[in-house]
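Obj.: predict assembly geometry.
Materials: sequence records (below).
Method: joint structure prediction, all chains together.
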Amino acid sequence: MDAIMLARLQFAMTIGFHFLFPPISIGLAWLLVFIEWKGMRTGDHVWIRMGKFFGRLFALTFAVGVATGIVMEFQFGTNWASYSRFVGDIFGAPLAAEGVFAFFLESSFLGLYLFARNKVGKGVHWFSILMVAFGATVSAFWILIANSWQQTPAGFEVIEGRAVLTSFSEAVFNPSMWHRFFHTMAAALITGAFFLGGVSAWRLVRDKSDDVARRGLKVAILSGFVFAVLSAFPTGDNHARQVAQTQPEKFAAIEGIYETQKGAPLVVFGVPQDDPPRLAARVEIPKMASWLAFGDPDAEVKGINAFKPDEIPPLALTFISFHSMVMLGMLFIGLMGLGILLMLLKRLESSRWYLWGVVLVAPLTLAASQLGWITAEVGRQPWSVYRLLRTSESVSVTVGVPELWFSIALIGFMYILLGGLYIFMLVREVRRGPDRAPEVV
Amino acid sequence: MDHQFLQITWFILYFVLIAGYAILDGFDLGVGALSLFAKDQRERGIHMDAIAPVWDGNEVWLLTAGGALFAAFPFVYATVFSGYYMALMLLLVFLIWRAVSFEFRNKMESPRWIRAWDWAFGLGSIVPPILFGVAVGNILRGLPLNDRGDFTGTFVSLLNPYAILVGVLALTMFLTHGALYLGIKTEGELRDRMDRWAPGLWMAWVVLYVAATFVSLLVSPFLFAGILKNPVFWVLFPVMMASVVLIPVFLKSGRHMRAFLASSVAIATQIGLAAVGLFPNLVPARNNPDLSLTIYNASSSAKTLTTMLIIAGIGVPIVLAYTVFIYRVFKGKVRHGELYGGH
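Observations (raw structure tokens):
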């Protein structure tokens, strides 16, 4: 493999592994804000023990997220020096803002949340988890601004081979930024709810009398249903419509539209084939893509054939990741909807098959986030900054193939170990379960 | 605002960030490095407890310094980070294992498990200061650059004697600083031992600083020319001398907090003096001074620097306010087992 592919492989590996953890942290942090609030207001030991138990799992997840996040802050410079020179005038500011407004907030208040339960008042303690959740959200906000600018650059002009800022507000509020932020937040909240639900369901499978898990599962199902619906509509729908308008070649690739056409169908299922590029075994809804993207069933949608061959993204990977993500999203809505039905029928805790279903589907929320990310980033190829800078022109010229192999092996080995340890300790903590209920005197 | 004014402002702010990082993460790295020499597992746990609530916030100074360098001087960020590739990858490995050791160590009772994470914590704390020092040493010595601003040396060339000297200097600086912090946070036998070790570590720091200064005269005479050109900043020198001398004086009379503050000032002023020597260079080119990356040829546009100044102006006072608040919550001695329920 050449240096460019290796650098891409390393970036995919480090961001992919890192991005397993922040969605859990962000989603779970907001649920903990709710749980700790209930504990503080009601004094009910079930809420309080739930807060402590999931607070421990949160700390474990956050630690791995922080540790693997350090790599990301450095990696633009180490591996993508040409990119860094090109975008530094714009891309660096959101990164620095993320540090000042978000990283300090979440990491400083996490120390307070974890270690000062008995040192500060209840209100201050609750405020500390609120600041952790808020900080994590602000962090997502700024890093997604930076990412969105790569997708839909705005507020700049290219002078002497580098992008120079002309309007900070246009660069920040670029066309894809709010859509990406809301959709990613919805995904993180789903992940948090399924984490809460998956852990609770697993506890219930083992021990029906676990009152923390019983209540935790209900919170997870109700909130998870709302978040899962929000991820599809309006956030997912809006985001796709924005892609159709701002990055038509990405839209054509993810929707599997190979020929420019009026009244384009929505492909629900298909198997991408190479040479010539086509979709086999397709199931489609007529005119739906035109209607969804442009509000008109007869609108023209540009197909892959409308673009130069060296300016289109890899077709199969983007199509498959996008469609798998959508299917998983439907699964999440369906499973949580079913849970609400079982709750109404008072059959929730006795339906072991359902509890196992939640346990098994919970990790798939992470898969959905990864697939969404692949859709967005592979769909941006061959550009690192859309229509401005090619990925192949973005790498560090000083870093050669041997160095790249060395770092990929080093980080890859470390991440396998770290991932294994995380799962090992998570399982151990979940088996241990929440603290015992106080004895009734 | 005038571009040159902004570039100078960001040069200063950048070194303020570096100094803030060295003072804050400096003590927790120092405490972690000292844990390698602790008496037993229980004592190593106290080292960790002394910094557990605050180390993460301290490390954010490093991330913010990285982000600020990217934003304010992207050409320096690109050159240094790609040039230091292998060194940074190693640094990341140590920082990652250290970061998770806080959370993982106390999750199991097994002495072997705890021992393994004690090693991750100790090595993850002792290696980064050396690597930071080596990185700074190479900047002070100058890097070989080509006309595109790319580093043309090798990884091995970064491990030159001068850089290693600065690396060991940085380690003794952080060890002293960490020992003083443990003096504030602990009591009994551990504190007494830190009180005995601190003067020796301090002496090593002073000797290495003097040695590095003399070697710099030969290796990088331009640093002294830079200081001579800017008489306003000569004031840093007596402040540095005074704070260094005050450390053992305060220590002798048992005033640990003051000794720690003196060492904080000493660290800041030593970094400040190096910065004045470098100015206006950020990466001096060893092979040809005309190729050096300076604040004038490596910075972002006036608009970006202004925007960043506004971000810093809003954000930093808030950060400082809650940082002070949180340190006040955790003030006082750490007691064994208080944080994690004890092992």
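Conclusions so far: Chain B has one domain: 3-329.
To do: check interface contacts against the pulldown list.
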